[in-house]
Amino acid sequence: MRRLSLLAMSCCCLVFASACGGSSSGSTKTLVIAVNAPFSKTPYIGTTIANGAKLAIDELQGSGTLPIGDKSYRFRIRRYDTGGSPAAAVRNVRRAFSDGAVAIVDEGTGVDASWSIAADDDVPIGIVYQGGIDLVDPQERPNVFRIVPTDHGIAYRLAEYLLPKRLKIAILHDDSGYGEEGAKALAAAFSGADDAVTTRITLPSGATDLAPQLLAARRSGANAVIVWAQAPVIAKALIAARSAGWDVPFYTPPAGADPIVRQELADHPEWIDGLTFASGRMTAEEGTAPYYTFEGKYRQAFGLERVGVKTRTGNVVIQPPEHAMYAYDFVNVLAAAIQAAGDPTDRAKVLAQMEEVTVRGANGDERAFNEKNHEGVVDDDVYFARFHDMTFAPVEDDPLSSTLPTVSQIEPD
Amino acid sequence: MNAVAARTTGAFGAALTEARRAWRWPATLATAAFVVALFAPLVLSRIQTQELAAWLYLALAAIGLAFAVGLAGMPSLCEGAFMAVGAFTAAQLRSKAGADPVSATIAGAALATAAGALLGIAFVRLGRVLFAVATWLVAWLVALSLAAFPELSGGARGLPIRAGAFTETIHYELALVLVALAALVFFAIARGAPGLALAALRVRPPAARVLGVPATRLRLGAFVASAGIGGLAGALAVQLAGIADPAGYGPFLSFKLFAAVLLGGAATALGPLAGLAAISALFHIAHWIGNLENVSTTRFEPMIAAALLLFVLGIGGGGIVPWLRRFVPARTATIEASPAPPPRRFAGATFAAAGIRKSFGGLAALVDLSLTAEPGTIVALIGPNGSGKTTALRIFSGTLVSDGGRLTLDGAPLIADTTTERVRSGVARTLQRTAVFDELTALENVLVGAGLERGYGGAIRSALATPKERAETERLRGEALDILDLVGLRAAASTPAAHLSSSDQRLTMLAAALATRPRVLLLDEPAAGGSAEDVARLARLLDALRGDGLTIVLVEHNLRLVSAVAERVVVLDGGRTIADGPPAEVAREPTVRDAYLGTHRL
Amino acid sequence: MSLALQIVITGLAAGGVYGVVAIGYTLIYRLTGVVQLALGEFIALAVFGTLLVAAGTGPVTQTSVGAARFVLALAVGLAICIAAGVLTYALAIKPYLDRGSTIGWVAVTVAIAFAIRAAVSAVFERPSYVFPDPFPFRDIGRGGVVTIAGASIQVRAFFVIALAVALAALANWTLERTRVGRGLQAIAADSEGAQVVGIPVDRLVAGAFGLAGALAAVLAIAAAPSAPFDVDTATLLGVKGLVAAVIVGFGSPWLAFAAGVALGLVESTIASASISGAQLGPSYREVLPIAVALAVVALRSRREERLEFE
User: Fold this and answer.
1) Residues A110, A239: one domain?
2) In the 3-class helix/strand/coil scheme, how is C231-259 assigned residue by residue?
3) pLDDT of chain C along its 310 residues, tens only?
4) Domain topology for B351-596
5) Could you tell me which of C56, C28, C46, C7 has the C-alpha nearest to residue C237?
6) Of the four, A388, B194, B533, C283, which is 20 to 30 A from B211 by CA?
């Protein structure tokens, strides 16, 4: 009997212990940088973000440790999967703390709820994918930073690009945070041009078949569609439209470049042709060299990111490590801030230094924050690219885009 | 005033003595664990406190589910849906209407309770299979509604809830106290009269109904309780989490709670806790292994939970807590010698059936059946198989509705609609097949019938164990022992009914029927399968009952018993009455002989 | 007019699949009193098993699979589904049926449903999959879409409708005319009596468990290429089939089929007929039928006579 109660209590202890965690061993303290992203839902985004962060860390500390002040620290990247669920994202932030995280590289889901948890401990959150304008607020949320084009910027550039074409546009968005924020940004950007927008429709993220919504868009008289949604929903919307025989041009935010869209439509490559997406420019104003250097480093560390489809001539299509750049930049800013503060455990100081340091980004642009601005990417640094034969190239009919080079997306032999 | 104080202290004293007597080391362990847990936040980090609090809220919902699944035996697959109702009500009120945590929680729990009442009223009459299907569909309905109406649920973005006055520690202590309270209430109800009635209903619904157990009311109560507790847990948990995410309230949540209850032992208070702890432990281990490989194991959680449940169900044994219970010495129930038995008083009533008709499909089961039974007499209803005897009894007891005819009790028409009301009017029946409540002792079997007197409605009184309730329990126990004495099973009072011989089991059923204080007793083949000695014992018992003044209608095949005790015999054949009179006369009728031709009994 | 035609054709195609799934539920319920809550997941097993053999787990880059390979894939997928059904009955459900424990088999079927879902999701990780098309539908019209009276309709829809009716008729014919079918009917009427007469009850019931899933899976595979497919699609198929079966109270196979078709039509109408700018339609599409089914069940329970089984 007593043995049983002992057994029961030791089991409880086991459960407790596994709920604990955290690690500190020996003289070299390990600091964790958490990557909070939907690894299982949109693997490309999660993996590239994590890889970008890891690349930055590996460059800084090599295979050893990073000397900061008079001590040495080893940084570790730890992945936390949100699966697209904001509640999971919030849980992950909590778990990251108990694992000793000093910063969080976040895809953006759930920041509305998780920022305050991080703020209580002065832990910086770096958003590197979602551009919703409400997510970042230097006054209210002093610990939230972003290095990725904002929705505001993308929406205004879309309006700038599309309105002169005198199209009748149906705006579709999904009900995720990404979609809702995008819808708000689009509403603001297109607010002066109500006769250009024929209808606004919400696409349920969980729906298996979007035919009714696309039919409604078609019947509203639109001859162009903006779909601001996560990649799987964009794919479903495109399939629903094309399989009903509706061939109008589709315009999307950066999610349109996600490999998932091309994977879903691998069966119908002709349906992808003409899909145009907006994205932050990969190459800098001063030239393409820094980007290609980064690309080379990334490929050496992690290999090629295969999209999983082939061109018509049978070449394997690869994806440029675009979002990895933003995570890479954020980690570099973080490292610089920690160095400037002299002590990674003094979180308040590190947070203050985040607004002081300046770092050269992967594509050559400067990345810096200040007390009024926590956005690392200039608003209108957005270009447009169009798909053709499973690869994309900057469009010709936009001033900024026409100056940009086409980045190779074919696997070299 | 002094009298009240004296009585209260007396009650406390009695409660303490009883508690001390019933104390076992698991209770010590549980109390110690509770006290330790109360002080845990002092040593745990904020994150750990938060995770434990979240777990405790889930455990609260699991205990709530145990009310429906464990006590009432209803396969409810929608506890997650009730949590969702509570959670999203509270979330909406907090985030959109700026309500304070307390009001939001109360609103969430209230709405979930209302939903439970609505669904309960709709589905409580269904058999178990359809009930399971209905609750499964409810779980899907709620999940799909949350996904389809982003205004309600925040869509894939969720509803963020600004942290209120409740810190993690407050949530933790609140959760701990609520869980302990829920477990205690469960325990108290399970041991009390409502628990006995629910156990009877769970084990053998037809036998329970026939003893007047109000099945619908009890089941509804259990279901509404599970809904309310689930809603409360959901409302609190969502405020702890800080965000209401529709993805977390799918059918898997309901399944996880269901699995936890079954894993741990459905009919026990701590079972859900044990089951949930097992599931959570496995999830943690998987997460830990996944961390080593840098792989997320959230996707595998449904498989882990399912595999665990299949495994535990496969090896049998009823769950974790019943398995652990084997190490606890069995409680030897002390049956005190009751004081001198009061004179048994069974008042009979004149029971008359006139012109009863019943057809099933096109087949006539009963055609114009009429009989009258006076107090202090025994009327026997005999006939070959399929002649409609059991159908007649079922109509008399209210289980079946006749197609025509009248039933009167002491001249007044019997219009009671449900079996419960019929039993309350004083008409009790025993079942044809032996149907005792196997897991209960003989005494408890009889107490199921005795519970009719206090209407089973005292769930709250039972949980609180008020002095009035205790006194009543004592009195009814004494009376039940008397009845066992009457049927000759006093010595077997604390034997589980499953261990009794077949004829003793039938006597137990008879005793249970007597415990409902009937005025008319309908017996369906009480002598079936008994030895000559058993039959003789039964005859003496029926004689005694008749002497007390009870009206008895007896359906029997054993003609020796019939001729020994019955004053009048009614013979049925193919639904028609072919003879009616004293046994000697009827035995001589040629039509009766013809009807029985071919059977080996005579 | 064109909208109405579109609604009807889409509704019939979807409803045909729901109808055959409903037949599966009905068959199993009438034979054993068990509601096979994992039927949707068994269909997923068949569909994804076929996909695995036909095209692997990567993105489908070929527009068509060779007929031989597809037939092999179909056979494998169906074999997996049938085996799973038979094993489920024999090992998991029968013990509880014999014991009379409803909670037992309810728990087991739901557990199996979740286990299969998780297993399939583990192997097929992407959010949705495109099913290869064994038939040259894309050669007809514009990429498989024809315009009739102004409505754009997938040619595949007609094929699915025809196949659904054929499968329902096949199920009915099997029950009425063949020996196996009559044996099943005997078991449904009185399983003990059937055993006495010498009908191999266990074997036939196990077979029915396996085949009910396979029947529905064949149709699901035929309908799969028309839209992206994932495990959730199959699960929802199971739920909708259950809704149809429940509405008619697990009546005869033809009744269940009709209920499924009606459900498909109603869904299609609700989804498409709200195009006056109001967004309500598509949201109610899946929710309303379930609510109606629950209401029907509740009302039916009040009307029924109290029957005590002793």
Assistant:
1) no
2) HHHHHHHHHHHHHHHHHCCCCCHHHHHHH
3) 677 787 788 888 889 999 999 999 998 888 888 899 999 999 999 889 888 888 777 666 555 567 788 888 888 988 999 999 999 998 888 888 888 788 889 999 999 999 999 999 888 877 777 777 777 776 777 667 777 776 777 788 888 888 889 988 888 888 888 877 888 878 777 777 777 777 788 888 888 888 888 888 888 888 887 777 888 888 999 999 999 999 999 888 899 999 999 999 988 887 766 544 444 556 677 888 999 999 999 988 876 644 443 3
4) Rossmann fold (3.40.50)
5) C46
6) B533
Nearest to B50 among A8, A94, A180 (CB): A94
Per CB-CB distance under 8 Å, the chain C contacts of B138 are 294
Q: Is C178 on the interface with A (CB under 8 A)?
A: no
Say which of C35, C112, C298 has its CB closest to residue B129: C35
CATH number of the domain that residue A247 is part of: 3.40.50.2300
Choices 1.10.10, 2.60.40, 2.30.30, 1.10.3470: CATH for C2-303? 1.10.3470
Alpha-carbon distance C227 to C237, whole Å?
Answer: 13
Q: Which two tokens stand for residue A52?
A: 């970008």
Considering the domain architecture, whether residues A260 and A393 belong to the same structural domain is answered as: yes
Query: Residue C306 CB: number of other CB atoms within 10 A?
Result: 13
Same-domain check for residues A268 and A362: no
Q: What is the pLDDT of residues C286-296, one digit of tens each?
A: 888 999 999 99
Of C62, C271, C277, which is closest to A212 when you measure between CB atoms?
C271
- Candidates B49, B157, B284: best to mutate against A (most CBs of A within 10 A) is B157
Pairwise CB contact (< 8 Å): A308 & C230: no
Phi-psi bin for A40: left (phi > 0), alpha (psi -120 to 50), beta? alpha
Residues of chain B neighbouring A202 (CB-CB closer than 8 A):
150
Verify whether the Cβ–Cβ distance C61 to A309 is below 8 Å: yes
Residue B94: what pLDDT? Answer: 92
> Using CB atoms, which chains have 3+ pairs under 8 A with A?
B, C
Torsion of CA C3, C7, C13, C15, to 10 degrees: -170
DSSP letters, B20-51, are HHH--HHHHHHHHHHHHHHTGGGTS-HHHHHH
Q: Does the pLDDT at position A22 exceed 50?
A: no
Confidence (pLDDT) at C308: 40
Give the closest-approach CA distance of C78 to chain A in angstroms: 24
Residue B19 has pLDDT above 70, yes or no: no
- Spell out the domain ranges in chain C: 2-303
Write down the pLDDT at residue B222.
93
A239 and A210 fall within a common domain: yes
Q: In this structure, are residues B538 and B526 in contact, taking their beta carbons and an 8 Å threshold?
A: yes
Report the alpha-carbon distance of residue A63 to residue B133 in Å, rounded: 58
Same domain, A55 and A188: no
Number of residues assigned to chain B: 602
A411 assigned to some structural domain: no
Question: A253 with A389, same domain?
Answer: yes
Answer yes or no: pTM beyond 0.90.
Answer: no
Q: Whole-angstrom Cα distance, residue C22 to residue C260?
A: 6
Tell me if A266 and C61 make a contact (CB, 8 A cut-off). Answer: yes
Q: Which of B157, B281, B285 sits opposite A86 (nearest CB)?
A: B157
> pLDDT tens digits, residue range B124-154?
988 889 999 999 999 999 999 998 888 888 8
CB pair distance less than 8 Å for C308 and B399: yes
Residue A240 lies in a domain: yes
Specify whether A205 is located in the same domain as A345: no
Residues 243-302 of C with CB under 8 A from B: 243, 246, 282-287, 290-291, 293-295, 297-298, 301-302
Residue A348 lies in a domain: yes
Span of B4-18, B218-232, B581-595, C185-199 with lowest mean pLDDT: B4-18
Interface of C with B in 27-46 (CB under 8 A): 33-35, 37
Give, as one character, the DSSP assignment of residue C57.
Answer: S
Query: Which structural domain, as residue segments, surrounds residue A102?
Result: 20-149+323-368
Domain count of the fold of chain A:
2
A68 with A26: CB under 8 angstroms?
Answer: no
The residues spanned by each domain of chain B are: 23-249, 351-596
